[in-house]
Amino acid sequence: xxxxxxxxxxxxxxxxxxxxxxxxxxxxxxxxxxxxxxxxxxxxxxxxxxxxxxxxxxxxxxxxxxxxxxxxxxxxxxxxxxxxxxxxxxxxxxxxxxxxxxxxxxxxxxxxxxxxxxxxxxxxxxxxxxxxxxxxxxxxxxxxxxxxxxxxxxxxxxxxxxxxxxxxxxxxxxxxxxxxxxxxxxxxxxxxxxxxxxxxxxxxxxxxxxxxxxxxxxxxxxxxxxxxxxxxxxxxxxxxxxxxxxxxxxxxxxxxxxxxxxxxxxxxxxxxxxxxxxxxxxxxxxxxxxxxxxxxxxxxxxxxxxxxxxxxxxxxxxxxxxxxxxxxxxxxxxxxxxxxxxxxxxxxxxxxxxxxxxxxxxxxxxxxxxxxxxxxxxxxxxxxxxxxxxxxxxxxxxxxxxxxxxxxxxxxxxxxxxxxxxxxxxxxxxxxxxxxxxxxxxxxxxxxxxxxxxxxxxxxxxxxxxxxxxxxxxxxxxxxxxxxxxxxxxxxxxxxxxxxxxxxxxxxxxxxxxxxxxxxxxxxxxxxxxxxxxxxxxxxxxxxxxxxxxxxxxxxxxxxxxxxxxxxxxxxxxxxxxxxxxxxxxxxxxxxxxxxxxxxxxxxxxxxxxxxxxxxxxxxxxxxxxxxxxxxxxxxxxxxxxxxxxxxxxxxxxxxxxxxxxxxxxxxxxxxxxxxxxxxxxxxxxxxxxxxxxxxxxxxxxxxxxxxxxxxxxxxxxxxxxxxxxxxxxxxxxxxxxxxxxxxxxxxxxxxxxxxxxxxxxxxxxxxxxxxxxxxxxxxxxxxxxxxxxxxxxxxxxxxxxxxxxxxx
Length: 809
Hints:
- This is Cyclic di-GMP phosphodiesterase response regulator RpfG.
- One of its GO terms (molecular function) is cyclic-guanylate-specific phosphodiesterase activity.
- Keywords: Hydrolase, Membrane, Transmembrane, Transmembrane helix.
- With about 800 residues, the chain is α+β, with helices and mostly antiparallel strands.
- The protein folds into 4 domains: about 30-250, LuxQ periplasmic domain, N-terminal subdomain (Beta-Lactamase), CATH 3.30.450.220; about 350-465, PAS domain (Beta-Lactamase, 2-Layer Sandwich); about 475-615, Alpha-Beta Plaits (2-Layer Sandwich), CATH 3.30.70.270; about 635-805, Hypothetical protein af1432.
- About 55% of the residues lie in helices and about 15% in strands.
- It starts with a helix and ends in a 7-residue tail after the last helix.
């Protein structure tokens, strides 16, 4: 059959198949999309319903807990006094709380008092027996239980908790149970919120219980189509006993749309095929036939000197040119291959690698003598050597190699390279790299002879293992690093049956610690936190240092109570550590149907972490400045009175200079914290009564840079960090640390420099007495234009002359 006919038949069949497949794909994708949207809508609606029921359950439990911690309730369990009944168990109470029944149990789990409202006692007792008291999987003395129960085709919420005194110091003396009905009011609210009609029934009333699942089926009610979906909920006993049914009204326009699409699509495809065949025959098929005929001629004659001429500049032309070039290089390539084979043989003989020649058909093997002695192969002949070779392979590698050699022997793989372990005669383990090629095959393509080289790569493997360990470990803490944890997350995403939690922890204030006390102290905190986490977490948990001050813990197959307990234990251990008191915030995420991959779980953990830090952030910010001031006062000779005087005078001077309100606020904060860097200066230098030495003065001058780092790493102070850095710069450029000159010095720094110098000179210090005010004014004038800005000095002196002495003394 000619290629033209084949192309026509193939094209026609391809188009027909394409049309059918496209129609089918469209049908299923279109209606699959609709079905997916319906399923997503159903899932969202059920999530809304479950959220509403969950909120009702939570509200009921919160009310129950409040009652259970009343001292009156605690006493009532003990003495069943009438006063409590009259005061708290009236019908109004049941109406206000929307309850159907209350039960009081003693510490033995026996009912000592009960009351129902608008529900007969038999029904309420059946609810109680079915849900809590008559359930082998639930201990009647369990401290807390909340869940759903079906009884008489009605849905109830039941909640139980233990009773104790309000201070939680008394021993638990019993428990309290509330029963609430999911009534028509709540169902109407669900209908209003979710937009569906909700029904529920007991699973016992369903004929085929195993077929109930969250799906959507079109059914007709009152001559209208509805999408009916069912979902099974777990009751308080943990059993699938409650069936929820949702009804959503539908339309019927899908079949009409699909029929019109198929007809239109078929017409368009037929037109395109007809046009394509005309052009394909003229521009492609004829030229391909010419090229095919030429290649057949080369195959028959084995004459590589022949060439083909092809018109055009398209891919077919390039293919013909490539064919010509290939023919011209075949002879030289054959010569090169022969030379290469000779070189390879020489190289193998000159190295310490082994050489293996295996005859698959006769099961005989040749191994080079050096390699045979190195490994300790034994065998009187080549057949015994064949058997002995496989016996030296490590058992853990043997199955993998059998699988690989199966493909080699059956001719499916020509070249191969494998790494595996062998057990030497001495018992030591050696890593081997075997690279080989099938050099002879039978008529059916099965391998007859295989040659390969054997290299000892033990040292390389050890080095790779060391590199791998270092690349997946954090050098400071010894924990796993982020790269290792991301690899674990990839494995988790491949395992669809995963059940895990991700905990993220963040050390509070580590940046401030690094700025104040240095990175050495920050590293000590990181190391201490790592030790605490490793000590508390079980061996099954994987702990990693995620970032600078962040840790990530991967915990498998544990419930949320365990995770909460683990987080609290780590936090308490950090806060109560003997050598360090460390504040650390946590957030966690759990793998479930909403967060089905590690990225989602990680995002949830990170969101909860920063939500926690956000809630704590305000109080932390308000405490930051006070904490810094307290530390400064405790360590430095400067007193609170000194900073208040600086603040008062600088504010007055700022107003006189016409500063805006925001600048006045910055000036007030700067007046309090301009010397905050002295926190990082040794106390023996700060408190030295005499003159500082040259070395001590160099250390003292570092307090400007230290203060800058503290402020710059504290969000509340970052906006005045440059002013703190420059508050000892001199107007003539001889100050420190950057020798700024004139107006290069921030305005607020120039103001503080003058006011601070004035207050230091007019008040007593450990290293000097106070100077007379008139002397100080003369000093200010003398230093004007040198140490101080002359304009500001002039205004400051006017301010001092106008002020009453008592206002700043």
